[in-house]
Amino acid sequence: MEGLEENFKLAKKQDSKAQKELYEMFSAKMLLVAHSYTNNIYDAEDILINAFLKCFSRINECREWKSFPFWLRKIVVNDSITFVRKNKNIMYVDVEIADELPEDDEEDILAEINIEEIFSHMPTGYRLIFNLYVFEEKKHQEIAEILNISEGTSKSQFSKAKKWISDYLKEKQNEKKYTDTIKI
């Protein structure tokens, strides 16, 4: 990213112009990260603002300009998790489920369904663990520590999230087949 190194160094000296530049460089991407956890744009915006305030007040903790994007993302993810934990009632229930996605016309269905649409319907607990495991590449043991749950619960919820996505895609696939039948 052009200007990242210079803006990072100036932001460490509390240069407000450089802080604004960093905000403009990363705010859209970090908003998407926060939104993927909260499923609410207004909550995601609040998290984003607080994360940047925290970032700029603690910027000296980040030693290298190259690691700044990852450090900022970690702040956004942690703040998002804290927000979800405080504001949502997440139920964790252990049930044995299958992990397979639908095979018929899977690519067609996936092409028509936006990832955001899937996450907007996914239950909060599933979405939280799915995001941490898939997008943040956390291990179940780490997720358990972050969310203060057992490792088994993390694995179970991840499995349920995959099953939920599978069922959701099957439902969309059936809707598409029904719609295609009506058009004939």
3D architecture notes:
Residues 114-164 form the RNA polymerase sigma factor 70 region 4 type domain. This is RNA polymerase sigma factor sigV. Residues 22-88 form the RNA polymerase sigma-70 region domain. Belongs to the sigma-70 factor family. ECF subfamily. GO terms for molecular function: DNA binding; sigma factor activity. With 184 residues, the protein is mostly helical. The protein folds into 2 domains: 4-87, Rna Polymerase Sigma Factor, Chain: A; 106-183, Arc Repressor Mutant, subunit A (Orthogonal Bundle). Helix content is 73%, strand content 0%. The chain contains 9 helices and no strands. α3 packs across α4 (68-87). The longest helix is centred in the C-terminal third of the chain and has 33 residues, at 151-183. The radius of gyration is 20 Å and the shape is elongated. It starts with a helix and ends with a helix.
